[in-house]
């Protein structure tokens, strides 16, 4: 852009007095041309990889639409993005975050509503031509148009993810969607925020036509596919203008019946009730957005458009000011940060990875690696172990074919990258080895030595341990600069977090390479310092110790679970222990207990050891706190475990044993340890601390992570509670210095 | 006269002659036959045409795509029925629409290696009857039934049959790897290269018009008459139907609806037919007193992405085979390309004209260029004559030989695409008159 137009832009933005030609020059985000009486409006934010409905974009869009509507020669319009992977990814979050009051956000919403209302009432038909992500405000824009055509590209997804940011579709989405796809589907979309693929969108009536993505021709597939989409959309626009194409679809019998049933007020009432109670059950009332969404939909349907739109904009404003929304948006930003490599480009790409140990973790790591096209060796010591691991990988991929996210041929192609073996063949070509063998230092040492004898000098040795200090493992290595910790979470193909642990000897290139591999595997990555339990395990251990104490004090597993889930943890503490494995928990508790002393006390480790002795190792062994295997939905408490707890019974001090006290005992120990990790430099910053806690350990997302929780709850209040617990139990509740600092000075915050 | 493509140390291999049954739309006069019946007719026709003593044939190679399970080695069944010596071995090859090309090049290989002197190659496709199978579940039950020892076990197996077991499995002209039908892929290919519906209809009309002209003026001399049991003598292809652009424009798209461009009128149709050629070493042919029709020279097979480049075989194969022969596109006098879809042909022509495509996808410095239309499929093509999958290759080669004789050129080029994202091309040289 020339300096003249830049200067002109600053002055001219939003003014309506510009001549057409200079306005075209000034526009940077939206452009259009008239082809054969069809106005083709192209959007492209030159400053970003994705298009968002920023103020800037909106202003230009309004300008362009007014010009089009004022041009009698234009009989129809096509709205299309020039970006290959993105239609419009949503509203500009920063624009919402910049607002100071609910009223400001409400008026933002009302502006959006107004624009889309004009689009909906457009005198000429507008066709939204969708390729790539069409989310949030982007979808609201599209559904205000008269017709929608989407490509069947893998990148094309439609959805209303606002709920995941603690918000709601605030530009007419809560009003238009139910009319378009029906009440149940609209609830499903808006309450879950899930992405809808093009085929499903067509079936639901969200889009009218699908266009196949094209392969190479005289241009690149991406470029030509957009062009083709435009050609098809222009044809449909002409057809709509000439009334050769009709928007109304003939309704099938099922649809007619559904419409009739939905027309009955008592039926609708029942639906609202059911949805409400379902939301309450799943969210424990901790998330305000879903409830507000229900309210908006209900108001629109029962009280009409005006009331519906008003409720939508007001609720949108209210939600934007909630701590829950701030927490969720914080996590969103954090996740974006943790999906980048801050250590630079590694010297060489990892083209061949070897995984040692075909257990749950090893096979999981192999699966997410081959899934991204990296050749992987999966080595085990026994044929049974190898076969089990191989089957796990196959099943993981095959399940994707059942969900149609993968074809059977793609599955086979991916599987061909996996080499299951019992020996060290081909390790001389490995760029990285990740060991996932048994958590025992002497075994790890043996493995380091064996592997280093066969791998090339550049090969990185990563260890997937959940608690053993990396430097202790690296002690057996001849090249400690190539040794790093890569702590995956189970199940590896589902859990998003990867905790990378560096020792003071780990080289920067080794770290860069480990992060690059993790990112390739689709992980959200935190990079932390070395020490017993690193960051995540170290936070979890004191909380589990407290959970054991609560169990010893007579809080049953079910009660304990409901207290923790009631606080916002997706999995209750007792269930979590079973999932992690009682044996692993015992192991970690003992190791970290030795390292950190009485601060990690609380529950008696002997409880866990005794459970392991009896074979109650958690879900994997069929029994832990609960009994597994029975098909009934109702989980049964393991009476054997209850007997053990009785034999270790403690008396609950009444002053700190109210339900809320138990919740805060669990959470404060978690949070204090997290803050201590930051204080000690194990954790580089609060953002990674929050991401690690939420994505790896299930810390309540509505609280945004331990650090945001301290900010929003108030460090002083938390310290007060801890002091009270400290009196009853001792140093396990002694707040760390950094937390005390924050308690003393309320202007100190972990997040801006 | 241009130079010959003979290479020192490489045997000259010749096409003595080639024939085919009339290509008929499936479900018409051949409907009650079996594949080996058609193949037999082509083989007998070849013997009649060449007067070849049956025991002079060293080997028979035959192509087929949709296999009749009863005659999985259809080459052998047809050879026995056609009266060849039962001492002549025969095997069947399959490579989708280039199956009979594969049969011919297998023959060339056998002769070049000095293992045979005279080989009959050919191909048959019979779309009037295709194997429709029981569902996998039903098959499993039926196979278990064979093993069930007691009446009780049998009854319990029979009792396990549910309605869902009875749903049959129909074959589709779809890629196994991508599950996309070929027509759908052709439509996407046409769109990728910006081939319009009009261009496709025009090309299809051209094919039908030229085929009709060739048929009427007796140029399709490879067609033999075939007395179909219980029916009349068939001596003409029955799918040639020159229409008008207006009529063709009325058709709705057949695969991508409603905005696609590939229709029934600009696609090849399901066809029954068989073809056969006699391939010999030049020495042997001359020794037996034959006047060969052409030399079969260099050939290549290529393969590429079966999803987005399924039908681009000719684009990849043409420059490769020309390079092998030391020729350029300008040296070629006669082009015979398999017309799977008008859109596919037009897309290939555009790809061959594109430097960008050659550089980006083929790793070549420049485009090969598109054949001039006056030399291209001038006696019609698969769109109009019909396309019995595995029989088309021999038709292409025989037609090149006949056109070279008729039009007086020296070099001909055959190119074809095939399912699986494969392709083939062969250079043919006229036999000195």
From TrEMBL, chain A:
Which controlled-vocabulary keywords does the entry list?
Acetylation, Fatty acid metabolism, Lipid metabolism, Lyase, Membrane, Methylation, Mitochondrion, Mitochondrion inner membrane, Multifunctional enzyme, NAD, Oxidoreductase, Phosphoprotein, Transferase, Transit peptide
* Enzyme Commission number(s) from the entry: 1.1.1.211, 4.2.1.17
Q: Which GO terms describe its biological process?
A: fatty acid beta-oxidation
Site residues by UniProt (Important for hydroxyacyl-coenzyme A dehydrogenase activity): 487
Q: What pathway is it annotated to? A: Lipid metabolism; fatty acid beta-oxidation
> By its UniProt entry, which Gene3D superfamilies does this protein fall under?
1.10.1040.50, 2-enoyl-CoA Hydratase, Chain A, domain 1, NAD(P)-binding Rossmann-like Domain
Asked whether the keyword Lipid metabolism is assigned, the reply is yes
The reaction(s) annotated as catalysed by this protein in its Swiss-Prot or TrEMBL entry are:
(3S)-hydroxyhexadecanoyl-CoA = (2E)-hexadecenoyl-CoA + H2O; a 4-saturated-(3S)-3-hydroxyacyl-CoA = a (3E)-enoyl-CoA + H2O; 1'-[1,2-di-(9Z,12Z-octadecadienoyl)-sn-glycero-3-phospho]-3'-[1-(9Z,12Z-octadecadienoyl)-sn-glycero-3-phospho]-glycerol + (9Z)-octadecenoyl-CoA = 1'-[1,2-di-(9Z,12Z-octadecadienoyl)-sn-glycero-3-phospho]-3'-[1-(9Z,12Z-octadecadienoyl)-2-(9Z-octadecenoyl)-sn-glycero-3-phospho]-glycerol + CoA; 1'-[1,2-di-(9Z,12Z-octadecadienoyl)-sn-glycero-3-phospho]-3'-[1-(9Z,12Z-octadecadienoyl)-sn-glycero-3-phospho]-glycerol + (9Z,12Z)-octadecadienoyl-CoA = 1',3'-bis-[1,2-di-(9Z,12Z-octadecadienoyl)-sn-glycero-3-phospho]-glycerol + CoA
Which InterPro entries does this one have? 3-OHacyl-CoA_DH_NAD-bd, 3HC_DH_C, 6-PGluconate_DH-like_C_sf, ClpP/crotonase-like_dom_sf, Enoyl-CoA_hyd/isom_CS, Enoyl-CoA_hydra/iso, Fa_ox_alpha_mit, FA_oxidation_alpha_subunit
Using the UniProt record, give the first listed, main subcellular location: mitochondrion
Classification via PROSITE patterns: ENOYL_COA_HYDRATASE (PS00166)
Q: Name one GO cellular component term.
A: mitochondrial fatty acid beta-oxidation multienzyme complex
The active site lies at 499 (for hydroxyacyl-coenzyme a dehydrogenase activity)
> Which ranges carry the 3-hydroxyacyl-CoA dehydrogenase C-terminal domain?
533-628
Q: Where is this site: Important for long-chain enoyl-CoA hydratase activity?
A: 140, 162
Q: Which residues form the 3-hydroxyacyl-CoA dehydrogenase NAD binding domain?
A: 352-530
Coiled-coil region list: none
The entry's localization annotation reads: Mitochondrion inner membrane
Q: Per its record, what are the GO molecular function terms?
A: enoyl-CoA hydratase activity; long-chain (3S)-3-hydroxyacyl-CoA dehydrogenase (NAD+) activity; NAD+ binding; transferase activity
Q: Name one Pfam family in it.
A: ECH_1
Assembly information from the UniProt record? Heterotetramer of 2 alpha/HADHA and 2 beta/HADHB subunits; forms the mitochondrial trifunctional enzyme. Also purified as higher order heterooligomers including a 4 alpha/HADHA and 4 beta/HADHB heterooligomer which physiological significance remains unclear. The mitochondrial trifunctional enzyme interacts with MTLN.
Similarity comment text for this entry: In the central section; belongs to the 3-hydroxyacyl-CoA dehydrogenase family.
**Name assigned to this protein:** Trifunctional enzyme subunit alpha, mitochondrial
Query: What is the native source organism of this protein?
Result: Cyprinus carpio carpio
What does the organism's lineage look like at the top?
Eukaryota, Metazoa, Chordata, Craniata, Vertebrata
UniProtKB/TrEMBL annotation, chain B:
Q: Does the keyword Cell membrane apply?
A: no
Q: Which lineage do the record's taxonomy fields give for this organism?
A: Eukaryota, Metazoa, Chordata, Craniata, Vertebrata
Query: Boundaries of each Thiolase C-terminal domain copy?
Result: 290-429
Q: What is this protein called?
A: Trifunctional enzyme subunit beta, mitochondrial
What PANTHER family does the entry give?
A: ACETYL-COA C-ACYLTRANSFERASE (PTHR18919), TRIFUNCTIONAL ENZYME SUBUNIT BETA, MITOCHONDRIAL (PTHR18919:SF153)
| UniProt-annotated catalytic positions | 97, 387, 417
User: Any one cellular component term from GO for this entry?
Assistant: mitochondrial inner membrane
Q: What does this protein do?
A: Mitochondrial trifunctional enzyme catalyzes the last three of the four reactions of the mitochondrial beta-oxidation pathway. The mitochondrial beta-oxidation pathway is the major energy-producing process in tissues and is performed through four consecutive reactions breaking down fatty acids into acetyl-CoA. Among the enzymes involved in this pathway, the trifunctional enzyme exhibits specificity for long-chain fatty acids.
């Amino acid at each position: 852009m020339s300096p003249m137009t830049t200067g002109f832009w600053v002055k001219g933005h939003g003014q309506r007095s510009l001549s057409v030609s200079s306005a075209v020059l000034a526009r940077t985000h939206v452009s259009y041309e008239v082809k054969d009486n069809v106005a083709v409006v192209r959007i492209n934010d030159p400053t970003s990889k994705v298009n968002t409905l920023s103020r800037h974009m909106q202003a230009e869009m309004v300008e362009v639409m007014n010009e089009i509507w004022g041009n009698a020669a234009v009989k129809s319009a096509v709205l299309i993005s020039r970006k290959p992977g993105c239609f419009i990814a949503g509203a500009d979050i920063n624009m919402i975050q910049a607002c100071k009051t609910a009223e400001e956000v409400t008026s933002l919403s009302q502006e959006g509503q107004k624009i889309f209302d004009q689009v909906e009432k457009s005198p000429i038909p507008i066709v939204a031509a969708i390729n790539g992500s069409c989310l949030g405000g982007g979808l609201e824009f599209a559904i205000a148009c008269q017709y929608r055509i989407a490509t069947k590209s893998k990148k094309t997804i439609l959805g209303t993810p606002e709920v995941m940011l603690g918000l709601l579709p605030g530009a007419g989405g809560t009003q238009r969607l139910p009319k378009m796809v029906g009440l149940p589907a609209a609830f499903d979309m808006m309450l879950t925020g899930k992405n809808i693929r093009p085929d499903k969108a067509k079936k639901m009536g969200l889009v009218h036509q699908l266009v196949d993505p094209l392969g190479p021709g005289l241009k690149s597939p991406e470029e030509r596919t957009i062009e083709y989409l435009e050609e098809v959309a222009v044809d449909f626009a002409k057809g709509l203008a000439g009334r050769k194409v009709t928007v109304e679809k003939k309704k099938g019998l099922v649809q007619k019946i559904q419409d009739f049933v939905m027309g009955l007020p008592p039926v609708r009432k029942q639906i609202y009730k059911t949805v409400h109670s379902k939301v309450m059950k799943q969210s424990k009332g901790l998330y305000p957005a879903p409830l507000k969404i229900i309210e908006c939909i209900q108001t629109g349907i029962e009280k009409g458009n005006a009331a519906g739109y008003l409720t939508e904009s007001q609720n949108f404003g209210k939600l934007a000011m909630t701590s829950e929304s701030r927490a969720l948006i914080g996590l969103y930003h954090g996740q974006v940060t943790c999906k980048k490599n801050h250590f630079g480009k590694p010297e060489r790409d990892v083209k061949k990875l070897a995984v040692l140990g075909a257990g749950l973790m090893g096979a999981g790591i192999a699966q997410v690696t081959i899934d991204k096209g990296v050749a992987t060796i999966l080595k085990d010591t026994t044929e049974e172990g190898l076969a089990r691991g191989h089957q796990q990988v196959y099943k993981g991929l095959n399940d994707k074919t059942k969900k149609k996210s993968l074809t059977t041929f793609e599955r086979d192609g991916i599987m061909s990258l996996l080499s299951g073996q019992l020996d060290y063949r081909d390790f001389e070509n490995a760029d990285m080895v990740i060991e996932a063998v048994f958590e025992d230092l002497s075994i790890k040492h043996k493995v380091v030595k064996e592997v280093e004898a066969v791998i090339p000098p550049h090969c990185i040795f990563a260890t997937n341990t959940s608690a053993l200090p990396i430097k202790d493992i690296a002690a057996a290595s001849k090249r400690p600069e190539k040794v790093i910790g890569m702590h995956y979470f189970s199940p590896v193909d589902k859990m998003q977090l990867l905790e990378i642990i560096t020792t003071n000897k780990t080289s920067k290139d080794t770290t860069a390479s480990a992060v690059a591999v993790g990112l390739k595997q689709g992980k959200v990555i935190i990079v932390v310092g070395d020490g017993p339990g690193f960051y995540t395990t170290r936070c979890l251990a004191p909380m589990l110790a407290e959970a054991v104490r609560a169990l010893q004090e007579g809080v049953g597993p079910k009660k304990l679970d409901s207290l923790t889930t009631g606080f916002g943890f997706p999995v209750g503490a007792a269930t979590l222990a079973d999932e992690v494995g009682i044996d692993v928990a015992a192991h970690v508790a003992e190791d970290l207990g030795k390292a950190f002393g009485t601060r990690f006390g609380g529950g008696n480790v002997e409880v866990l050891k005794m459970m392991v002795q009896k074979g109650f190792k958690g879900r994997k062994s069929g029994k832990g706190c609960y009994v597994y295997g029975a098909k009934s939905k109702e989980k049964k408490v393991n009476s054997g475990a209850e007997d053990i707890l009785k034999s270790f019974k403690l008396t609950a001090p009444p002053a700190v044993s109210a339900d809320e006290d138990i919740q805060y005992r669990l959470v404060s120990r978690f949070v204090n340890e997290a803050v201590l990790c930051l204080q000690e430099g194990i954790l580089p910053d609060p953002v990674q601390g929050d991401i690690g806690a939420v994505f790896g350990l299930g810390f309540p997302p509505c609280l945004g992570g331990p650090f945001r929780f301290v900010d929003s709850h108030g460090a002083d209040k938390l310290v007060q509670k801890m002091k009270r617990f400290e009196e009853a139990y001792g140093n396990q509740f002694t707040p760390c210095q950094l937390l005390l600092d924050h308690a003393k000075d309320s202007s100190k915050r972990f997040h801006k | 006269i241009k130079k010959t493509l003979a290479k020192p140390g490489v045997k000259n291999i010749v096409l003595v002659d080639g024939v085919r049954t009339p290509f008929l739309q499936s479900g018409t006069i051949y409907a009650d036959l079996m594949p080996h019946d058609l193949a037999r007719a082509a083989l007998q026709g070849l013997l009649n045409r060449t007067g070849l003593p049956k025991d002079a044939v060293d080997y028979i190679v035959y192509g087929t795509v949709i296999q009749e399970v009863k005659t999985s080695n259809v080459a052998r069944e047809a050879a026995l029925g056609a009266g060849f010596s039962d001492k002549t071995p025969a095997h069947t090859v399959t490579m989708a629409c280039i199956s009979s090309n594969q049969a011919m090049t297998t023959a060339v290989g056998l002769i070049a290696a000095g293992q045979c002197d005279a080989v009959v190659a050919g191909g048959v496709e019979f779309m009037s009857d295709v194997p429709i199978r029981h569902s996998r579940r039903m098959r499993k039950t039926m196979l278990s039934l064979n093993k069930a020892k007691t009446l009780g076990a049998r009854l319990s197996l029979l009792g396990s049959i549910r309605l869902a077991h009875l749903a049959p499995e129909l074959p589709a002209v779809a890629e196994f790897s991508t599950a996309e039908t070929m027509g759908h892929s052709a439509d996407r290919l046409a769109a990728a290269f910006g081939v319009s519906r009009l261009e496709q209809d025009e090309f299809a009309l051209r094919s039908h018009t030229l085929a009709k002209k060739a048929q009427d003026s007796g140029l399709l001399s490879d067609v033999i008459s075939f007395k179909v049991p219980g029916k009349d003598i068939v001596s003409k292809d029955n799918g040639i139907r020159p229409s008008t652009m207006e009529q063709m424009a009325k058709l709705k798209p057949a695969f991508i609806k409603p905005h696609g461009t590939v229709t029934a009128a600009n696609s090849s149709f399901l066809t029954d037919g068989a073809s056969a050629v006699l391939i010999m070493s030049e020495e042997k042919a001359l020794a037996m007193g034959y006047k060969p029709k052409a030399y079969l020279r260099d050939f290549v097979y290529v393969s590429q992405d079966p999803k987005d480049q399924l039908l681009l075989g000719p684009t990849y194969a043409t420059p490769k085979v020309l390079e092998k022969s030391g020729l350029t596109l300008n040296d070629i006098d006669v082009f015979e390309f398999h017309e799977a879809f008008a859109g596919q042909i037009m897309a290939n022509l555009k790809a061959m004209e594109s430097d960008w495509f050659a550089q980006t996808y083929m790793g070549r410095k420049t485009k090969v260029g598109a054949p001039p239309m006056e030399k291209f499929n001038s006696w019609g093509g698969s769109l109009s004559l019909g396309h019995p999958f595995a029989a088309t290759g021999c038709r292409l080669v025989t037609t090149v030989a006949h056109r070279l004789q008729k039009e007086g050129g020296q070099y001909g080029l055959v190119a074809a695409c095939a399912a699986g994202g494969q392709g083939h091309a062969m250079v043919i040289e006229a036999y000195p008159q």
